[in-house]
Amino acid sequence: MSHPSGAPALPRSGRTLLMGIPWLARAIDKGRMRLWGTLGDYVFPCPMDEEILRVLDLTPLQFLEILKNAPGDEEVLRALSFRVSSLGPGDWMRLDVFLVRHSRLLDDQDREEGRL
């Protein structure tokens, strides 16, 4: 997988929702950074990546395989669409709780990365 020109130096905020899922955009960015060898001080998979991937019933290695075969977000979301459409009410509640439980950490990350 080649590193696209203009790739972000920082992962997106954990608050960014993709398909209604928090942290997914950040996990995608960090996973790609790992594949490109540009992860730096970031960690993939971190416990929060793993928490979101568990909701989607994916291992970190499975997720990295999706990223290898999906050059853009649209392709990643297409690959995840069945898993997301299969989420039940309890899964969506877990995702809402994720945002509340990690609110302070998300604020700290956004501040450190210049979003606040």
What descriptive keywords fit this protein?
globular, mainly alpha, 116 residues
Overall pLDDT: 93
Rg over alpha carbons = 14 Å
How many domains, in number, for the residues?
1
Largest sheet, if any? none
| Apparent shape | globular
* Topology, number of strands: 0
Helix content: 55-70%
Number of helices: 6
N-to-C SSE string, H for helix and E for strand: HHHHHH
Summing up helix and strand content along with how strands pair, one would put the structural category as mainly alpha
- Percent strand: under 5%
Low-confidence stretches: none
Spatial gap, N to C terminus: 32 Å
Q: How does this structure look, described?
A:
- There is one protein chain.
- The mean pLDDT is 93.
- The longest helix is centred in the first third of the chain and has 13 residues.
- This protein is mainly alpha-helical and 116 residues long.
- The protein has one domain.
- The chain is built from 6 helices and no strands.
- Helix 1 crosses helix 3.
Mind sketching the topology for me?
Layout: H1 24-36, H2 47-55, H3 60-69, H4 73-85, H5 89-101, H6 103-112
Task: Summarize, please.
The protein has six helices and no strands. The chain is an all-alpha fold and 116 residues long. The chain has one domain.
